[in-house]
Amino acid sequence: MQPTKNISDFHHINKVKVKFNEVDMLHIVNNAVYFNYFEQARIQYAMDAGLLPDDNIFSEESLYYMVHNEINYFKPAFFDDELNIYTRISYIKHSSFGFEHIVENSKTKVIIAEGAGISVHVDPLTGKSTPLTDEFLRKVKMIETSVKILRTQ
Is there a contact between 100 and 115 (Cβ–Cβ < 8 Å)? Predict the structure, then answer.
């Protein structure tokens, strides 16, 4: 299997260094750890894009639930490797949007893995999906000039 995403389409990078507790008995990063890397990268992306309140990321006003995650592994990562986690929002629908990720070894530039996920905007009172705001769309478009808008206006 070969990578399908192009790094040049990504404008946000989160750097991580593989910790000892993230490797398994095979001496490689455990497969589940990559989802933690993706989550850290998504949170940093949202903070950098101004999508989260400055004072408290656990806002009572808006909730975003991850409803789907997927990953494809290409090469192993090892203890003390430095990794670049590239993140972008690739599309926006009515109440959901898609994240994509690429994991690259920062020294060798080898693509380690790639992944994707879907996040849904949820009303905290009803627990049901609710439309994404125009402000959300505007902030994402400031970073992602080629984001696909798949919602009706």
Answer: yes
Question: Which amino acid is present at 24?
Answer: D
Residue 32: phi and psi, rounded to 5, are -70, -25
Structure confidence by residue, pLDDT tens digits, 71-103: 999 999 999 999 999 999 999 999 999 999 999
Nearest to 96 by CA among 119, 115, 67, 116: 119
CATH number of the domain to which 70 belongs: 3.10.129.10
Q: Are strands 82-92 and 12-17 parallel, antiparallel or unpaired?
A: antiparallel
Our count of domains for the chain comes to 1
- Say which amino acid occupies 26: L
2 within a domain of the structure (yes/no): no
